[in-house]
């Protein structure tokens, strides 16, 4: 059975994000084909996709390698997310379905309950599902794809500290859902912007950044 390239792509991406393949590491087709038990054809296609996403770069004489993002690129990623997440929330207020609302409210109930009990180990995954569902509710395929890609890259580049007051963080999630449910696009946008700004402050650069960058010291860190 031929394993599709998108499945190989997902596996390689997950190994890059989790640190199995470190920044700068070579990614030979032979090694990857052996690791995932596939032929070199889907590996080649997967590497092309990952290069377009910014996880992989091709070097002369070395071939495909895990990218080494600069500090500026990492900072730009967070800045872009600060712009796109509020946009997704505003669109969700106009386009969400009852199904989206049901899932969002269920996640908020679970998150608030876990936060009150101090069950922090569940909150990270619940938060991820919340923001993924909010993006899906925007009804914008291009925006959804961008935010999904960004979520993978942020998880790769940054370690995220747990919020000091998780109950407050989940209260913000609840307020966003209330605005989306009422169809109040501007309030959904404003609340999400404040929430995203606060969350950005908890991100700490994790990956080894490139030493060959020209503008490493410029821009916000």
TrEMBL record:
Keyword Amino-acid biosynthesis appears in the UniProt entry: no
Membrane-crossing residue ranges in chain numbering: none
Keyword Zinc-finger part of the UniProt annotation: no
Residue ranges of domain HTH gntR-type in the record: 2-69
Keyword field: DNA-binding, Transcription, Transcription regulation
SUPFAM superfamilies attached to this UniProt entry: GntR ligand-binding domain-like, Winged helix' DNA-binding domain
InterPro entries documented for this protein: GntR_C (IPR011711), TF_FadR/GntR_C (IPR008920), Tscrpt_reg_HTH_GntR (IPR000524), WH-like_DNA-bd_sf (IPR036388), WH_DNA-bd_sf (IPR036390)
One of the Pfam families matching this protein, by short name: GntR
Protein name: GntR family transcriptional regulator
Species of the source: Streptomyces flavotricini
